[in-house]
Specification:
There is one protein chain. The protein has 313 residues and is mainly alpha-helical. It has two domains: 151 residues, Formate dehydrogenase/DMSO reductase domain (Formate dehydrogenase/DMSO reductase fold, Up-down Bundle), CATH 1.20.1630; 139 residues. 73% of the residues lie in helices and 0% in strands. It has twelve helices and no strands. Helix 4 packs antiparallel against helix 7 and helix 9 packs antiparallel against helix 11. The protein is globular and about 65 Å long. The N terminus is likely disordered.
């Protein structure tokens, strides 16, 4: 009994005894990317850009499907009891962020499949002639396509919100105990997706539009990070100490250099010059944004586990 009590006590004051590995940050990052890509693709569908043969709304669903599957795989690898994951889908707990997220992630797959039907692979059209019939019906009714766009944006926002709510619902970690963590992850996911599509988009108009949109997202992300820090600094002493880990503590150098500097400020300056035609567009800035978004999640997850109501009080 004494050994069990000591173990439990040590777990409270030393969260490194049980920590998440690389799987959760990767899952949160890929989930944020998919959320942003669904929002972008849905917006293009809603605005009728599917009429453009090289619209990114035709290939983003394929990429979203792959990235979401990789993210789900990373999450599965992190599970301690992998054989019982199916039990998540035998019930729905309205007060559980994990329950909401599990069902949203499953529902996203058929939504992405409907998006893919707008331009299905040639092999499917050859093997299943009914696919061509469905595609023609969708393109014959613009209202259906607009509705598909709205649904894609709705569920994309849901994934983006969930990745932040998942952490903030764990009140045992003071760094995560913030009401705007979901907004930070949503904006970061949008920024990363906009940067990614900016690099791969075949349509010149879309590349220009997403570069401008990413500049707005980066500016908003700076404000949200500031609000996130201010919220922690003006809360309890434990939360203030948790914020100090990012400002001048163990994670400060990574946070300021990779997240703020390389991930936001420098690419923002480069892209502002590019959209104002002072310099040519370059993939360097978008890649820096994506790297910054990935490191942001690693830092938030790691620092959040290191922070504790007992350890920092």
């Amino acid at each position: 009994m004494q050994e069990i009590t000591t173990t439990r006590h040590n777990h409270l004051i030393d969260p490194t005894l049980h920590v998440w590995g690389w799987e959760i940050p990767i899952y949160l990052f890929l989930g944020g990317m998919v959320a942003g890509m669904m929002l972008i693709s849905g917006y293009f569908l809603f605005k009728g850009r599917h009429k453009e043969t090289n619209c990114s709304c035709y290939y983003l669903p394929y990429m979203s499907m792959v990235l979401l599957s990789l993210g789900m795989l990373a999450l599965f690898l992190d599970l301690e009891h992998k054989l019982y994951v199916w039990r998540l889908y035998t019930t729905f707990q309205i007060t559980s962020a994990m329950s909401w997220g599990s069902w949203i992630l499953v529902l996203v797959y058929p939504i992405l499949m409907i998006n893919i039907l707008l331009r299905p692979p040639k092999i499917l059209e050859d093997k299943l002639p009914i696919i061509i019939e469905w595609k023609n019906k969708l393109h014959a009714n613009p209202i259906w396509i607009k509705n598909i766009g709205v649904i894609s944006m709705f569920f994309g926002a849901g994934i983006g919100l969930y990745t932040g709510v998942l952490l903030s619902s764990l009140g045992a970690r003071p760094l995560w105990s913030s009401s705007i963590l979901w907004l930070l992850f949503l904006v970061s996911g949008l920024s990363g997706a906009a940067a990614f599509v900016h690099v791969i988009a075949k349509n010149v108009y879309e590349r220009e539009l997403l570069a401008k949109a990413d500049n707005a997202f980066l500016i908003i992300e700076l404000f949200v990070i500031a609000l996130f820090i201010i919220g922690l600094k003006t809360a309890t002493q434990v939360q203030s100490n948790a914020a100090d880990m990012l400002l001048n503590g163990e994670f400060a150098s990574s946070f300021w250099v990779f997240v703020i500097g390389i991930g936001i400020v420098i690419p923002l300056i480069i892209q502002l010059l590019a959209v104002n035609h002072k310099i040519h567009h370059t993939p360097i800035a978008p890649l820096m944004v994506i790297l910054g978004g990935l490191i942001l999640r690693f830092i938030i997850v790691a620092a959040g586990q290191y922070s504790h109501w007992f350890a920092l009080n």
